[in-house]
Specification:
about 60 residues; mainly alpha; 2 helices
């Protein structure tokens, strides 16, 4: 079980490094894609904050602190 999870983590790490290389190539290629990448990063941050807030609300028994 642990070896399997370790395998998947290394697999994901390899995939992430490929994506990073691809993004670097895009940045060298042109600024056209920069906006979409920035927008997706902003959306990820917003979703992360929303998730945190929702978790806090659940933990405090639906009381908004």
């Amino acid at each position: 079980m642990f070896s399997h999870s370790g395998y998947t983590i290394s697999k994901h790490h390899h995939r992430i490094s490929k994506i990073v290389i691809r993004i670097k190539l895009f940045f060298q290629h042109g600024t056209r894609i920069k906006k979409s990448i920035l927008k997706s990063n902003q959306n990820k941050k917003l979703n992360f904050v929303k998730r945190l807030v929702n978790l806090q609300i659940v933990n405090y028994g639906c009381e908004v602190v």
